[in-house]
TrEMBL record:
UniProt superkingdom: Eukaryota
Protein name: Reverse transcriptase domain-containing protein
InterPro entries: DNA/RNA_pol_sf, RT_dom
A Pfam family the protein falls into: RVT_1
Domain Reverse transcriptase: 1-231
Amino acid sequence: MVIITPVPKKGKDLTQATNYRGITVTSAHGKVYEYVLIEKAGLKNINQSNLQFGFTERLSPTMAALILSEVYSEINGKDLLFITTLDSQKAFDVSNHQILLDKLYYLGVDIEYWDVIEDMYNGVTSTVKWQGDTSLSFSIDQGVRQGGILSSHLYKQYINEILSELETHNMGISIGNTYAGCPSCADDIVLFSNDQNEMQEMLNTVYDYSSDHRFLIHPVKSNTIVKSVNK
């Protein structure tokens, strides 16, 4: 059983339950266990896209921002640059456990450690702690734990295939011979293209992936910006 502590989102209406983020506090022993599991199972950045900058050692979101600067400098002599920012809605909370476990299996994670991860997510129950009181327990059938050491590594594998698919099909901008079409920070993805039709194709690809993997793209936090050399 895990205990969820609701943490209010900054500047939000605190009378709405959706404006709280559920954080699971892991014990010191649990953190050590997850660190060891990450190393033993080889989960640290396994098969990770080069354009994933979130929760990655020696990388930061600032590097993704630098790619935007470089991409913008490449449009000299070209009319338009389409920039789409995508936010996966409640991404960590809706990751399907079976889909995630299947991905880890096909990545070749040792079956012994795969079984450990399956046990961690099989039959999980939780309670909510609020103002000194604790709720009745309930089952958790989806999502990776907010605040868990292992969670960010698992989520990156859950989303990684969409970045690889865009790169494999060379959808979006390249800087010289280096693909730069979809820099990402965990669940936040930016798409770059010089062509409106190609951008639509990239969006269709992301939509199909999100439908197959049972998560939604946030309709308010996602936007497309059209930039030109002069504006």
